[in-house]
Amino acid sequence: MSSSNSLSVAVLPGDGIGAEVMGPCLEVIDAVTSRVGDISLSFKEVPAGAACYRDHGEALPKETLEEVRNADAILLAAMGMPDIRYPDGTEIAPQLDIRFELDLYAGVRPVRSIPGVPGPLSDPRAQALDFVLIRESTEGLFASHGKGTIEDNRIARDTMEITREVSEKLFDFSFNLARKRKAAGHEGRLTCVDKANVFTSFAFFRSIFDERAAENNDLIADYAYVDAMALNLVRNPWVYDVAVTENMFGDILSDLGAALIGGMGMAPSADVGDEHAVFQPCHGSAPDIVGSGKANPTAMFLSAGMMLEWLADKHDRPAYGKAGALLTAAVDKAFAAGNLLPFELGGESGTTDVTNAVIAAVDQVC
Amino acid sequence: MSSSNSLSVAVLPGDGIGAEVMGPCLEVIDAVTSRVGDISLSFKEVPAGAACYRDHGEALPKETLEEVRNADAILLAAMGMPDIRYPDGTEIAPQLDIRFELDLYAGVRPVRSIPGVPGPLSDPRAQALDFVLIRESTEGLFASHGKGTIEDNRIARDTMEITREVSEKLFDFSFNLARKRKAAGHEGRLTCVDKANVFTSFAFFRSIFDERAAENNDLIADYAYVDAMALNLVRNPWVYDVAVTENMFGDILSDLGAALIGGMGMAPSADVGDEHAVFQPCHGSAPDIVGSGKANPTAMFLSAGMMLEWLADKHDRPAYGKAGALLTAAVDKAFAAGNLLPFELGGESGTTDVTNAVIAAVDQVC
Ligand SMILES: CC(C)[C@H](C(=O)O)[C@@H](O)C(=O)O
Ligand SMILES: CC(C)[C@H](C(=O)O)[C@@H](O)C(=O)O
User: Fold this and answer.
1) Residue B268 burial class via C-beta count within 10 angstroms: exposed 0-12, middle 13-18, buried 19 and up
2) Residue A1 reports pLDDT greater than 50
3) Percent of chain B scored above 70 by pLDDT?
4) Per residue in B151-172, pLDDT tens?
5) pTM
6) Spacing, Cα B252 to ligand 2 middle (Å)
7) Rounded-to-integer distance, Cα A218 and Cα A209, Å
8) Which of A71, A311, B187, B195 falls between 20 and 30 A from A196, CA-CA?
């Protein structure tokens, strides 16, 4: 990591529409950072993904992993292509390997409505959602990635693993986020989502949650079973503040959360560890729309906003936080007028339209 | 099982509001069967559940299991109470044990809108949902029920198991249902929901699905990853016909499905095996509303309707099918008028109101 004044960002456009949203994202970052000033970011693009695997035989080359480890932050667009697979038929998803390699245990997936973007729920309260799902991202069922077995073509097994060490860090991270949100006017509540009524590993997960809740008793701690949570996220998602869960459950629930705010193209994410962090839109490489100009760059932009805020906290550099807040405000402003509607929401605003509107909005919200 | 003309039903009211919805359900069954005629059902109530465990030390007494095995069908209301648990802290859920003991591999969970019951989605197409989720109900992650481990208070594990034997039966069952629905005007499509991009056991699951799809090529077979499915069920649930998935995923997605049609009180289910079947509302024992008269018996009624139709098919007795269809039509009729709104949906129609309206509707739809 850089010890100089400049902070370095490893840039992984990846596959499919990845490059199509990454380019505009770097423009938007430039627009906000040059406005705020006192910011010095250097960007280095590195290869990874399905096309990289096809062309070089490696989905996550050693040099890329090295660059990623040495960078102050990682900006990732999209990876994987349905037609390019490992010999065993599974898809190429180096984003999983990065999460494991860099111990990015906290997958932060905000579910925040953007005024002007239509959501699927009819209740007016659903137009102002603002909660965060935290998906553990290095173990749980995904501990079995690459390790599942098939016996005699008769029975297949994958083993879910939940460790005390990671769970403690995950819950502390989550309580800290809830505390930060409480200071900003939210409820200050953390909901543990599990299936502790049926599984030993989830009873273990919940017991560690209870221990950490006792240490964080300035905050409200409660629980939900994952099945009830899926129902609640449709029926009354506005009651949540921060919710934390296992990797596989978080994968499912965060897509459900993205659906509530306009789909994957609107949903940013951060995979955060003690040292490193990856910032990435929730959407995939969308091979069906590559080259059409239809890709929605919003989630990529909002992920960059999260990156700037994370860099501000980590390196105690308020200017980066200002830039992150400005980026998010510009996205909100661009959609608030109500004449921007991405293709995936039935509109006709393409990548360029959204990008131009956001860059124009930077001036307006300054 | 009875070889005489009469068919026997084991009745398990279970815990909490279980008895409050079971009583009315038996009344409704009586109303439809006596209308149709040529039906002879005998009912025998047997104990199981959390209160049974508290009072007799067993959640599923041997005699109950025996009765359940000998019955032609099993009608179950709700089981489990948060305050009564096994020594290890997990909840009492003999419904899981029954699924395992009787090999009830196909958990059938219809997601059908009832006109007059408000749903959460604003798109008008969501007012006419009619698809079926099939949750494998004897293995998957639940194979680990009671078998999870904790090592040194440091790492906990639960192992998901997917077998060829059960998967083949599950897919054949699901294709047959899709075929039956096709004959009734539906698309004739089965969607396999998995996470085959990441896990060996789901790649195995999908490969068996492909084999069975080749044998059922009069029907459309396609796939969805479970995370995308969670999003799609919110954004465009009307595109599905029949979807089939693993036990844990099905638990989550079927609650999401219930949310789309008015909540757990509106969602019936059937757990079906080659020999036996349990019919049960998706809701739990709801201790918070016991004794208030607020319990919504609709899902219990609709489950009984599924039971009558299943008995008709299994024993080739069309009168039972007529009674099942009549029961479902009476529920629809009762809600169609629009002046019935259960408490969980913000209304004031209690157990008795719904029951009386459905019984009155039996006469109207005859
Ligand atoms: C592409 C896939 C492996 C990945 C995951 O399951 O984690 C994606 O769904 C995500 O949520 O980042
Ligand atoms: C009560 C619980 C054990 C059960 C399950 O997880 O199967 C319930 O959620 C269900 O869906 O029937």
Assistant:
1) buried
2) no
3) 99
4) 999 999 999 999 999 999 999 9
5) 0.97
6) 9
7) 15
8) B195
**CB neighbours of A254 closer than 8 A, spacing ≥ 6?**
A107, A109, A111, A133, A135, A267, A269, A282, B227
Angle, helices A318-336/A298-315, rounded to nearest 10 degrees:
160
Collect all residues of chain B within an 8 Å Cβ-Cβ radius of residue A264: 231
Ligand 1, atom 5, residue with closest C-alpha: A251
Closest ligand to Cα A267:
1
Question: Ligand 2 center to residue B134 CA distance, Å?
Answer: 14
A121 token code pair? 């729920």
- The pair of structure tokens assigned to B106 is 């196909």
Q: Which residue has the tokens 């024993």?
A: B315
Name the residue at shortest CA distance from atom 3 of ligand 1: A93
pLDDT band for B4, please (50, 70, 90 cuts): low
Nearest CA to ligand 1 atom 11: A251
Strand partners, B149: B157
**Structure confidence at residue A4 (pLDDT):** 53
Query: Which tokens sit at B236?
Result: 């465009």
Residue nearest to atom 5 of ligand 2 (CA): B251
Q: Which domains does chain A have, with CATH numbers?
A: 1-108+267-366 (3.40.718.10), 120-260 (3.40.718.10)
Q: What is the DSSP string of B79-132?
A: --BTTBB-TTSPBP-HHHHHHHHTT--EEEEEEE--TTS--SB-SGGGGG-EEE
CB atoms within 10 A of CB A149: 14
Please name which of A176, A108, A166 lies closest in space to residue A138, comparing C-alpha atoms: A166
Amino acid at B57: G
pLDDT tens track for B289-346: 999 999 999 999 999 999 999 999 999 999 999 999 999 999 999 999 899 999 999 9
Beta carbons of B91 and A264 less than 8 Å apart: no
Contact B198 A93 (CB under 8 A): yes
DSSP state letters, A301-339: HHHHHHHHHHHHHHHT-HHHHHHHHHHHHHHHHHHHTS-
Q: Which residues of B touch A154 (CB under 8 A)?
A: 163-165
Nearest CA in chain A to B199: A145
With CB atoms and an 8 Å threshold, state whether B251 touches A227.
yes
What's the sign of the alpha-carbon dihedral B191, B194, B200, B205? negative
Report which secondary-structure segment, H or E, holds B278: strand B277-279
The two structure tokens encoding residue B267: 């969602």
* B204 closest CB neighbour out of A150, A196, A203: A150
- The DSSP code for A92 is P
Q: Using alpha carbons only, how large is chain B's radius of gyration in Å?
A: 20
Nearest chain B CA: its distance from A233 CA (Å): 8
Question: Taking CB atoms and an 8 Å cutoff, what residues of chain A touch B158?
Answer: 159-160, 199-202
